[in-house]
Amino acid sequence: MTSALTRLADWSAGTPKRLWLISFALFFTLAGSWAAASPLGSSPDEHAHFIRAAAVARGQIGGTEVMVPHTVAGIEGHFAETGVQLPEWYRNLPTVHECYSWREAQPASCAPSLGSSEKIAQATTAAGRYHPGYYLVTGWPSLLADGPKGLYLMRFVSALLCSALLASAVVTAAEWRRRSPMMLGVFVAATPMTLYMSGMVNPSGGEIAAGILVWTALLSIVLSPDPVLLNRRLARLGVGGLVLINIRPLGLIWFGGAVFFCLLLTQRRGLLGQVLRRKALWLWTALLGLATAGALLWAAGHPDNSKIDIPESLTTGVAAKRTLGNTEVYIKQMLGFFGWLDTPAPALTYLVWMAVLATVVALALVYGRARDVVAMLGMLVAVVMVPVVAQASQAERIGMVWQGRYLLPFAVGLPLMALAVCATRAPEYGLPWRRLVGLSVVGLALANLSAFYWTLRRFAVGTKGSWVATSAHWAPPGGWAFWTCLYAAAAVAVVLPALLPDRKDTPRLPDLDPPRTARRRRRVPEPV
Predict the structure, then answer these.
(1) Which helix (H) or strand (E) holds 65?
(2) I want to staple 153 with a disulfide (CB 3.0 to 4.6 A). Which of 33, 141, 272, 435 is the partner?
(3) How many other CB atoms are there within 10 angstroms of residue 339's CB atom?
């Protein structure tokens, strides 16, 4: 059985193009299953992103400011939203989830109909200040179909974007000589929450997928240098960086953090100088610079004018203490906390993912050199302290609004760094790597499937309903059994490439740009 799976994995990676296409199809199946099997508007703020995407697709890049009363995290205020002109049924989107959100025992069958009125009316969105790039990509299906069909199509387009980024990360990891650890790193980083957000109309999905690609490309450049693959890796880094920076203002910080920690891992002398001599690097640097300038100008031109009644008791120190105390909650949210943060994944998902993550981090600390250990410990500290600093600095203005998924585009670097260190520093013999990787991917597949089914069951019958949703009160298009079986097959198949054997070709020389004199073949004079 194992040998058959290994042969199948080897066939899938026969060429980079084949591996990309297969990985893309499988990731799209996973993200698309989340898109189809989740009620419309059942993810955080999705109604606002639906409205924003539909408006941008109709040429409404901006809009009029409208002050809307809201209560967020127990704090009341008037939030500055953007008014846009859309078919009247879009105005019903903000309320379709309210009858079951935060009521875990209530299935989604209570959700009212969206209606079908095509009369143009004003709808408001809290996402009006966000950069329009993501919404230009995801909003156009709303012009092709009305009502729920158009909304599902928007979800599928988001899944396509994220799947392409994740497939590129898989191909990049497969280029390593010891590729099974790096492939495992990609699958550990692609948590159920990553796949869930990829299937929703929400910038977080593209942001997280782009973060995985950025980290994978950077680690490949600094720890597995290859002159033939360098331009290709720089292109992937550039594409991932463009998506990351243009989606949200925080993307620039996450990109900078990834560059800093990857440079900290660099130990080969002269490597940085050789990379800097590549013209492709400067081309992508210029493009990223323009994207950064555009993103900063957009953010500066669209300030948040919300007026929130922050209680005097919520000081910077109090916010920092609360945020630090919520570290475990944020970690669970990065692994899998679905719905409007009201549907945690089953305990199996958390236990398996944390066990695999703890194992690979421990191995990296054991086998890594001093500089690697410093980078790993710094990353661990950053994952805990960045939310503390970010929320404490903003709590007196916007309140306690941090969610674990906000950090995920940066935090995905932890498993990728750990397994990159293992692939580079750990001995090839003495530790049963193939067995470790095999057991890990089996556990991840089961944990992933359990998270999907648990969430689907919650929407179908509620948390107090039967374990097998045979008499579902709510069912997605196609039925819950179809999407569960499809997700199970894709969850197993997508991790098979991690079983690939190491490359048999010898590693290339670290010199990425040898001088011209070294390229010339010396001619030895014949003896007289």
Answers:
(1) strand 64-72
(2) 141
(3) 22
